[in-house]
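Data card: per-record layout.
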Amino acid sequence: ELREKRFRTSAEVREHIGSLSVSATPRAIGRQRKSPADAILTDNRSAFAESFRVSWTKIHFAVAGPKSVSVGGGGPGVALGITSAASGEGKSVHALGLARTAALAGETVVLVDADLRRSGVSRLMHQDFEYTLGDFLRGRCTADDVVLVEERSGIHFVPGAPTDIAWTTPELQRFFDFIEHLNHRYSVVIIDLPPIVGLAETIRLAPAADHVALVIRWGRSERQFVQFALDSLRAAGLSTIAVILNDVDLKAQRRRGYRDYHTAAYTDKELYRRPPAGFRDPVPAVPAPLLASAAAPSDTSYSDTSYKINGARPRRGDKHGDPAGSVNSDIARLYDRYRG
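The structure for this 340-residue chain is written out next.
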């Protein structure tokens, strides 16, 4: 009964929530566990990094459509909020990971840490900051002062820090104006929002985003909390475009007999292995000579023992008695004639 209260596969998520786009992120393993979002930069061929590219592609399609090269489409940018039902479900890792993935895909990206209770994204950056979002909301610095750059990925970043900000009406309006300002400077604005359950400010902050993605954790997020989060976003008139099933234990899925089409490929080690040492670049292809059927004109005729090309009977074979040599030479001459 306890197992049924939590999500184990992407199919269960889709069945529960309906038609929203669903993607899955496998559990970080080995060195990835220390700083999962760094795998996108340091282990780009891993299944973990690929799962972020899949999630970003689905979000891109949901926002801009499959034929759009950029999410912004040449106009104002798109603000995407990342949240979760409860804390500890991986929303901050996904906010940072999706921001880096979008930047590597060619988008101009700014990541805003708006979770001023935990500031998970800022802790993942491992940097010291002179100014934070809280300072900007209180008027202690300008917008340019608070926007930093991560050189490794190229994303711009607005750090946060745990603070007792009350989100008064002036502070809330300043936040909305700030996000709108960023929308005109970047093609993608990703906002790391606080969790929904038990907190008041999330639903007040979320309307600053054009769309919202909800992160839930494999085997941990309870269905009633996920449904509450979706209902809360819907009641606030917010567009929830994606649900990401995070921290999927691939070994446990196989052991317990769960089949998940979203994560099946991530178990294929051959698909995500690194190129072997000394791997050479492919040799440029050389155009092959045309086949006789392609090179010969329409009056080519065939017989059991020989055939004619352009009405002329080819020479009998070479000195070894093999007709292939003379035929191939005639084909080569025809190839040069028609190519010229």
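Known properties of this structure: The chain has 14 helices and ten strands. The chain has two domains: 3-272, 292-339.

See the next section for split statistics.
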